[in-house]
Every structure is written in C-alpha cells, then in structure tokens.
Specification:
The complex is a heterodimer of chains A (135) and B (326).
Chain A: E1 8-12, H1 21-32, E2 36-39, H2 46-56, E3 60-65, H3 70-83, E4 90-95, H4 102-107, E5 113-114, H5 120-129
Parallel strand pairs in A: 1-2, 1-3, 3-4, 4-5
Chain B: H1 7-15, H2 19-31, H3 33-43, E1 51-56, H4 63-76, E2 81-87, E3 96-98, E4 113-119, H5 131-140, E5 145-149, E6 166-171, H6 178-182, E7 192-195, H7 203-217, E8 226-229, H8 238-288, H9 290-299, H10 305-325
The chains are: A alpha/beta (135), B alpha/beta (326).
Chain lengths: 135, 326
C-alpha cells in the first residue's frame, strides 16, 4: 500500500470579479504537475474559501483576484485562516495587485504574489519549494 | 514542523463532530494505510447510523448540481449531510482537477454540511480506494445522510454498490444513445433513476426508454426501480426524489429487520437443538457409567472424540429403533 503524500491545493476566487481565466490556467498547470487541485468557482466570500480549505484539508491556498479588493478581502481571509487553526497552510496570491501593496499583503502572511505574465512554471516551482511541512 | 496528531486524538475529534478532525481523518485514510486501519477500527463501533446514497451517471448529466439541491432539501428537513465527490486522477501526470463542489459551494459554510473532494488516484470502478473509509468517517461524525458522487460513469464503474445503500442513477436527455451504452452496467445498479434536465423536450422519451429497459431487467426484484424527472438548476422534482430515496431507505430497513430477525432466530434455534441433544446424550452416558469409559479411551489416544461421538449417536439410534420395534 502506498503512503505517498499528494499535494492538495485550493485555487480560490475571492470577491466580485468574474474573470477566472488566470485561475484556471494556474489550476491546470498545477494539475499537470501532479497535484490535486480543488477549484471553488467564482465570487467566493472569505468564509467560504477558508471553510473549503478546512474541509478539503489542503496544503496550500492560491488566491486569484482582479477586482482591486485585496486590501479588504486578504486581511479577512488571513484572519479566518488563523482563527480556524489552519496555520500549517501556505497562502499565495496572484492577479492585479499593485506593487506598492505587496509588502502589506506579505506582512499578512501571504507568502508570494504573482503578477500578470508570470510563467506557470515559476508558480509550480514556487509551490514545490515552499510546501509546508504537514501533520 | 508541528507535532503529529495521534490517531486517537483525531478519532476522538471525529466522534465529537469536529470538522478539522474529520478533514484530517479523511487525509489519513487517503495517504496512510496502516494509520487508516487504526483510525477505522476506533470509529467503527460508531458507524452504521447514516443513510448512504450513491449518485452516479454519465459526465455532464448534472450529478453535482443535483446533489447541491438534494443537500438543501435535507437541510430544510433538519438533517445533516456529508458528501464525498469523486473526480478522476490523470493517469498521465497523477494530478487531478476537483471541480464538483463548485456546484455546491453556497453550502460550504453551513455547519451541518461537510463536502470533501476526492481524486480516484487511479483506482478503478468510479470511486477511490479511500471512499469507503471516508464515508465511515462522515458517518461516525454524526452525519444523517452521506452522499457519494462517483466520477462520470457509463458502463463498468459500478463499485458504488459496495458502498451506497440507495443508488441513484442520473441521466440526461439528449445523450440519446447513452442509454443504450449504459444499460449493461449502470442500468443494473440503480434503485432510482433520474432523468435530469427535464425541461428539455426529449426528456419524456428518455424516461420512456429507461422504463422500457427496466421492465425487461427487474422481474424478480422486490424493489422496483422507478424513473423520476428533475431539473436540478431550478430544483424541480428534487423533493419527489428525496421522497423516493426515503421510501427506499424504509424498504431497506424493513428488509434488514426481516432478515436479521430471521437469521437470529435460526441460529438461536440451531444452538438450542445442539445443546438439548448433547445434554441428553451426555446424561444418558453418565447414568449408564459409560462417559468415563469413553473419556479414558480418548485420553489413551485409542479413539478420537469425533469417532466416539459418531459411535454414540449410532448406538443411541439403534436403541431407539429397537424400542420402536418392541
């Protein structure tokens, strides 16, 4: 019997923007790298995203946002991650996030932020290199 | 690295209905066979309460959307629901895209609902190796109903019958020859058939096709499968489906009761006969002083116990025959 660990990753779309091409491309790349990718679909609340991460017991959450609401939504998501005890989950983000907001977002505990034009290989490599130790 | 949570702690959490423990327990069942066994052993006595519904059918027939509506209906009735939604693992990369829960996502924050996506990890038959164990976890965690959604299935993906108590086969009109294609495998396992997307004009034809097929198939079965129509997007027909599922559940309970009480009575009777017969023979032997004699032969290895018993029985019958002749 196998005892091999599979990487489980949640790709989530917080807030009200309705474009998920980027999220789907990243999801596809991670799938092709051998991971189990759970996709939430569009227009998710922070509560839905974190509760989904809990039920799915994911190792990683990837947030995709294009609406500009990251300064409201990301702090709430990170707060819930803490509250629900998902402290062994790594969170990264991508989308349209202005350069000057990046330090603030990273201070929240978001490990990395990928802007437009990032090659998918770079994201896959990042995930492999920053895999949290899991119980 | 955080210290590893012992399996016992996780099992305790599962029994208390703690959501994070439930999630961790399912991960253990997926990843670690030896720990999984330990976990299942400790929750097993608390399983068997949930009604397990298997939902299967071809890709795109609307299984996930329908499950979303089924969950809502059960929640309206005050029941808690667990879902295991299985999607395929790529045989080429080992990766998977698990998208079933997108159709149920508005229920994700409901504390009476627990939805878990599961990749097949190349297990064949429409479910994953860990599906059965995961169902036990949700059952032990106190979910009233546990729904298993198989991968989009057509012919031989019928493993779900080993897990589900009520099997719902979901079809859609316009898949046309699909019905022909599925008749060999899936048509045989459905307790309830659903033609989803019933707002389409060819829905009635799909219903009739299935009904015709069922009339050929199920002559001896006690439960006659029925065909229902639903439109999962609007929720139409879902309450009738739930009624039918509940009816089947009741049927199973009555069957089970009949079977177990009959089985129980049978073994009790056999046990009682053995005891009476053995006692009467032993008493007779003792009163005649022969019991010690035979016991000695066995101790000296001159005869084995089975041969002694046979000899005794023969003698007893001969005596009785003589009695009758006199």
């Amino acid at each position: 019997m196998q005892s091999e660990r599979k990487i489980r990753i949640l790709i989530a779309k917080p807030g009200l923007d309705s474009h998920d091409r980027g999220a789907k491309i990243v999801a596809r790349a991670l799938r092709d790298a051998g991971m189990e990718v759970i996709y939430t679909g569009l227009r998710q609340t922070p509560e839905q995203i974190v509760e989904t991460a809990l039920q799915e017991d994911v190792d990683i959450i990837g947030l995709s946002i294009l609406s500009g609401a990251h300064k409201v939504l990301f702090p709430r998501i990170m707060e819930l991650v803490e509250q629900k005890g998902l402290t062994d989950v790594m969170v990264f983000a991508g989308g349209i996030i202005p350069e000057e907001d990046v330090p603030e977002m990273k201070k929240l505990g978001i490990k990395e932020i990928f802007g437009p034009g990032t090659p998918t290989e770079k994201i896959v490599q990042f995930v492999f290199e920053n895999l949290p130790e899991r119980t | 690295m955080k210290p590893l949570l012992p399996v016992g702690e996780i099992a305790k959490g599962v029994l208390a209905g703690d959501r994070r423990s439930v999630a961790k327990a399912i991960t253990i069942i997926e990843n670690n066979a030896s720990k999984a066994q330990e976990l299942i052993a400790s929750i097993y006595p608390h399983t068997g309460k949930a009604h397990i519904i298997g939902i299967t059918g071809p890709p795109g027939s609307g299984k996930s959307t329908l499950i979303g509506k089924i969950i809502r209906e059960y929640r309206r009735k005050g029941k808690t629901v667990g879902v295991i939604a299985v999607d395929p693992t790529s045989p080429f990369t080992g990766g998977a895209f698990l998208g079933d829960r997108i159709r149920m996502q508005e229920l994700s924050t409901d504390q009476g609902v627990f939805i878990r996506s599961m990749a097949t990890r190349n297990y064949l038959g429409g479910i994953a190796r860990a599906t059965k164990g995961a169902v036990k976890v949700l059952d032990a965690a106190g979910k009233d109903t546990v729904i298993v959604e198989t991968v989009g299935a057509g012919q031989s993906e019928v493993e779900i019958i080993k897990i589900g108590q009520t099997i719902v086969v979901v079809c859609a009109p316009g898949l046309g020859d699909e019905i022909q294609a599925i008749k060999a495998g899936i048509m045989e396992i459905g307790d309830i058939f659903v033609v989803n997307k019933a707002d389409r004009e060819d829905a009635n034809k799909a219903v009739m096709d299935i009904q015709a097929m069922l009339q050929l198939n199920n002559k001896e079965k006690k439960w006659r499968p029925t065909v229902l129509k639903t439109t999962a997007l609007t929720g139409e027909g879902v309450s009738q489906l739930i009624e039918k599922i509940e009816e089947h559940k009741l049927f199973l309970e009555q069957e089970l009761e009949r079977n177990t009480s009959r089985g129980k009575a049978e073994s009790e009777l056999a046990e009682a006969i053995k005891e009476k017969v053995a006692n009467s023979i032993i008493e007779e032997l003792k009163s005649e002083g022969k019991f010690e004699e035979f016991l000695q032969k066995i101790l000296e290895k001159k005869m084995d116990p089975a041969s002694v018993a046979e000899k005794l029985l023969n003698e007893k019958f001969r005596k009785q025959v003589q009695k009758c002749q006199n």
